[in-house]
Specification:
By secondary structure, this protein is α+β, with helices and mostly antiparallel strands. The protein has a single domain (2-165), classed as Histidine kinase-like ATPase, C-terminal domain (Heat Shock Protein 90), CATH 3.30.565. It has four helices and seven strands, in the order ββααββαββαβ. It has helices at 26-40, 45-62, 104-111, 138-141, and strands at residues 2-3, 11-19, 66-73, 79-84, 112-120, 125-132, 163-165. It has a seven-stranded antiparallel β-sheet. α1 runs antiparallel to α2 (45-62) and α2 packs antiparallel against α3. The termini are far apart. InterPro entries: Anti-sigma-factor_SerPK, HATPase_C_sf. This is ATP-binding protein. It comes from Kitasatospora xanthocidica. Residues 149-176 are annotated as: Disordered.
Length: 176
């Protein structure tokens, strides 16, 4: 796990940990996010749900090792990134009444200020990034576009294939 709490006057907390594609790894995600939130005095309940949902999506759909990163900058809303090695993009949908899945991104949308994905076709990875809700001035404190691998301080070369989302327009519900 990478943990460096005061890299500069800008970074408040930066923690990142890699996980194997094993369902038991979600416990480690829960621990990482809980400890990170507690370190900055942020209520961990919603961030833990968001991170576990994104990690579960990586497990279920990417089936590759994945990395979870928690970033908190001074005077900004913290965010969570989940990077995996799948080039399959998230497909939010509206679940039908009796569907057993398909509600994850609806939950992520409700519990976060915003979320988006970044795709790097050159290095073959995707990052799903969720900005947490908080008490900061959201007009000046929202994370917009910094979903980067651990330690990377500028956007990767290659095509800009980012998609940012505010409210997510979910697809049509499937019939039960």
């Amino acid at each position: 796990m990478f943990d460096h709490a005061h890299l500069s006057t800008i970074v408040r907390l930066f923690r990142s940990e890699s996980f194997e594609p094993d369902p038991t790894s979600v416990r480690g995600v829960r621990r990482l996010i809980t400890e990170s939130c507690q370190a900055i005095g942020f209520e961990p309940d919603d961030p833990v749900l968001v991170a576990c949902e994104l990690a579960t999506n990586a497990l279920r759909h990417a089936e590759t090792p994945y990395q979870v990163t928690f970033v908190a900058l001074w005077n900004r809303l913290p965010w969570i990134e989940v990077m995996d090695r799948s080039m399959d993009l998230p497909k939010p949908r509206l679940a039908g009444t009796y569907d057993t899945g398909g509600r994850g991104f609806e939950l992520v949308t409700k519990l976060t200020a915003s979320w988006h994905w970044d795709l790097n076709p050159v290095d073959r990875y995707k990052i799903v990034c969720a900005t947490l809700k908080g008490d900061f001035d959201e007009a000046g404190g929202q994370h917009v576009h910094t979903a980067l691998p651990a330690g990377q301080l500028s956007a990767p070369p290659g095509p800009d294939l980012r998609r940012r989302t505010g409210p997510v327009a979910l697809g049509t519900p499937r019939s039960a």
